[in-house]
Amino acid sequence: MSRDFSDLSEKELKDLNLLDINRRDFLKASFATASALGVSTLIDNVEPALAQSSTKLVWLSGAECAGCSISLLNAEEPSIVEAVTGVDGVSVDVAYHEVIGYQTGVKVDGESVDEDYNALKQFEDIVHGDEDYILVVEGAVQDKMDGNFLRIGGKPFIEHLDAAADNASLTVAVGACACWGGIPGAPNGHDVTGAKGLQFGVEENGELNKKKLGGYLGADYESGLGYPVVNVPGCPVSPEWIMPVVVAALLNRIPTPDAIGGWVDEYHRPLDMFGEIEHQSCTRRGEYGRGNFAETYSDDGCLWKLGCKAPVTYANCPEQQWHGHNTYCMESGGPCIGCTQPGFPEAFRPFNEPIEGLPSILGFDVGDFAKAGAVITAAGIGAHAIKRIAFGEKEEEE
What pLDDT sits at residue 86? Predict the structure, then answer.
């Protein structure tokens, strides 16, 4: 029998043993907690609120590999099927999505398609109509050559984006490409196609790990509710980062625009997900403190010497984890490549070199470790750590 979570207190929800409830109940409980974006208080009557919500989800795909959509399809808690089809009246109305939606043409296999099942027709009706919708964009925006590097339904992608962004209640950039250009926006790619993020674009003052506010939509862009673009980066993005943002938006539980500085950082990333340096919570952090560094990917020890970028990367991967909350990059032997950072990928290449070989990330010349200590302290590593690395000192046992 399905359970009702609407009358549970916040403490009861936090103490709930999620291993003891079924998938249907987990969906309801995850909506009830709505813990994203600093909104960790209980939302009353969440099921009726979602059931009665007329807000739709419109998902556009720009220059991308579909990796973020695939990540979404791999979501487990809830699964995309559960989120879309609904459980006991709780659902997310995905009105347009090129990967999981229906056909987009007027003909399929030579047969005319009923307009009710023509996704592009539905998209046009929504974005040019009076319906409320949340816009999610995956992939970079290529605006050179009048946007003709990417065409959808006979039109440049940017025409669809312009129409959707104009009337969206909230606009969310999903994945590194949509946030600040990602791989399509790296040098050569950006130079040829103009690939950039929705509200962040080219490097600021020539620094690879800093992106200039502006992007395709411009620095002053605000959605219908008065918000700038909310960035949820990653390559790919974690499904556990997407769904809470969407649900919080559907329930109108995102903090007010005048409080935006309190729940997102300077790059518009939600602080609940991207507010801390990964290195501090890494399960290999103790090995780093002991000066035990892995020499190969199968070794125990900190992966810093193999190029791990966790000391300068903001994300909650060690706490949230991936694959059913079972593991994440460093725990599986893979160094962090900094995919949630504005400079990804160019500022972090080559991926297999340690951070001290990448001064452009930190914005200084690695000439002496006094400077290194000062800057990296600000990044959350600590000057004592640089001293240990530089001079081979090991952390004293407490």
Answer: 64
CB-side exposure of 249: number of CA atoms within 13 Å? 31
The pLDDT score that the predictor gives to residue 390 is 33
Please give the structure tokens belonging to residue 132.
């409320």
To the nearest 10 degrees (0 to 180), the angle between helices 119-127 and 157-167 is 40
| Residue among 92, 151, 152 nearest 119 (CA) | 152
Distance of CA 158 to the CA centre of its chain: 21
**What are the structure tokens assigned to 254, written together?**
């995102």
DSSP sequence for 180-248: H-TTTTSTTHHHHH--B-SSEEEEETTEEEEEEE-TTT-TT---TTS--PEEE--TT--HHHHHHHHHH
Two tokens, residue 251: 């329930």
Residues of the chain with pLDDT below 50 are 1-24, 26-50, 357-398
**Which of 104, 89, 93 is CA-nearest to residue 136?**
93
What pTM value is reported for the model? Answer: 0.77
Q: H or E segment at 151?
A: strand 151-152
Q: Show the domains of the chain with their CATH numbers.
A: 10-274 (3.40.50.700), 278-391 (4.10.480.10)
Length of the chain as a residue count: 398
Give the count of beta carbons closer than 10 Å to the beta carbon of residue 298: 7
What 3-state class would DSSP assign to 111? strand
Tell me the per-residue pLDDT of 25-55, one tens digit each, with 9 for 90 and over. 544 444 444 443 333 332 334 444 445 556 7
The two tokens of residue 395 are 């952390």
Nearest to 66 by CA among 105, 100, 96, 102: 100
